[in-house]
Every structure is written in structure tokens, then in C-alpha cells.
Amino acid sequence: MNFQLSDKSSLSYVRGIVMILLGVALLFFPGFTLLSITRFVAAFLLVKGALSGLVLLLSKNRPRRSSFVFELIFDLGIGLLILYNPSGTISFFVILLAIWALLGGLLMAFSFTSLRRAGITNWGLFLSSVIALSFGLVLIFEPLRSGLTLATVIGAFALVYGVVSLLSNLSQKHLQ
Hints:
The chain is built from 6 helices and no strands. By secondary structure, the protein is mostly helical.
């Protein structure tokens, strides 16, 4: 096989392999992988903030310095916050997902009752609202444990996606 970076199929192989590796890591080491990804994001934000500071220092007499100051403060602040408390960051994003699920479930429940008053009964909408509300409640009461469970589910998805992607690329190579 000829692996050139400009070749789209070779990038598909790389994507498949990365997804398989991520899936295996999330399936077998969900806590460690989540903390590692969180720390990677923190390091990325710190480097990005430092580079914004460097650009700010090098462009002393240029207009629009305020955007670089804001970017510097935001990136360094969020990066340090994530680095200081990675578990809290994971819990925060799980709670955001829980709020999203609860709001979506409530909106579906209100839609169901409004449609029911109009004489239209959509039991799929009712069931979806019950599932979304249940999902949101579970996430909000156990955010860290739910984060690990979500990581495992995402890991299974990533593993299946990576394997299917590699098999698809291999079958396309044999057809050509």
C-alpha cells in the first residue's frame, strides 16, 4: 500500500486507526482517558494563551490589541482552571449535558400535552420526553459516574466506527 499524506484513503486509514485506539482507551480505561483528554485540552489552551501573549508583545503598535488581551486572559484562565480541577471540568460538562436533556425532555412533554389537547396523540414524543428526562436526572445526580459511563459508550461507538472505517477502506482498495 502506498501511504501518502495527500491521499484521501490514507487519511481514512489514519482516522480509522485513531478511532480504534480512542475506542479501546475509552472502553478499558475510561477514567484515565477522560482525565488525559481533559489535561490535553488544558495544555492546548495554555499554549494557545502563551502564543496569544507572544503575539500581543510582538504587535505593540498594532490596532485590535484588546482581542489578543481577551484571548490571552480567557485561554490562560480556562486552561489553568481545567488543569487545576480536571474531574470538576468533566462533571461540569456532564451537568451541561444533563441540563440540555432535561430542557429537551420538558419541551417534548409540553409539546405532547399541547398536541394532545388539539386531539393529536403522539406516543413516540411522550416516550422520547420520558427517556430524555430520565437521562437528564441520572446525569445530574451522578455526574462523574455518568461521565465514565458516557465515555464507555462513546468508546464502543468509536471502536465500531474505526473498525467499519478500516474495513470500508480495505474493501474499496480491493474493488479498484
